[in-house]
Amino acid sequence: MKRVTIYILILIGICFLIPIFFTVKFQIEKKIKEEEVPELNVEKYSYSDFGTIRLLHSKTSEVEEIPLDEYIVGVVAAEMPVDYDIEALKAQSVAARTYTIYKLIAGTPHENADICDNSACCQAWISKDARFEKWQDNKQEKWNKLVEAVNETLGEVITYDKKLINAFFHSNSGGMTENVSDVWGGKDLPYLVPVETKGEDAYSQYSSEAVFTKEELLNKLKEKFSDIEINFDEENCIEIKEFTQSGRVKLIRFGNKEMKGTEVRTLLNLRSTNFSIEKNENIVFKVIGYGHGVGMSQTGADALAKQGMKYNEILMHYYTGTEISKLD
Fold first, then answer.
1. Using CA of residue 220, residue 224, residue 227, residue 231, what is the dihedral sign?
2. Domain segments of the chain: what residues?
3. pLDDT tens, 24-36?
């Protein structure tokens, strides 16, 4: 009888301890996740913490200190046409500000600078004087429009769960943005998932073609795979093996080699990984969209603005589950 009583007490103890174990385990896992990027919590910062930017000019290697808002105007001037709708320009301002402050907090690969003016590395930037040289007329009026877009969103950033997001943007999504892990690998991010946009086909960035002779294509691919062999007489010598969720090329085979769509885009200098292939006397890549496809589409932002959406609605459309927060 005593043995039965002991077993019952042990069983009761186990039942009592199991919930505690899982509660502690959940709290530990939650704490670890929160501590991965605690510095990105916007509640820990005010806007005055980010007064100036040390900008690296990629062509001269010179570093220039610029007030943050002045820098953001230069980014919008370089990244988006000034004749886009003001709501699109505002959306670009907030995305650029978020991207910049994220870089300031998380750190950058530049030793003596916070960020550079190369869009392939960070984001594009142009000075007022350089922009004026490119514009033909109404120069001050156009510049004032950019300043207005930045000033009317002053201090605003994009957050997910009260943390700054990595606000990627690109030129034209081709109608559907891309999942971040399908471009750069790593883990998925809940705010950088495929979303649809109507109206992007009205822009010149929507479609393009790249034509190669068979010899040119083979030589280009040999820059990465020296032992590649393609028998162009075979019907399936080039075969798309897998697509991403958004319809872009994830994996493709050229002859005896398989490679990622992102690798092909870089090697062949295609505008995006959303392409189809026609094989005749030449190899023709028919490309949809322009850029990596992650985050906000700039032409899409303009299309949505022309459809009546405000800048905050545009941003929350492209960055799923986010909100606009203001750094005081």
1. negative
2. 43-171+294-326, 207-288
3. 333 323 332 333 4
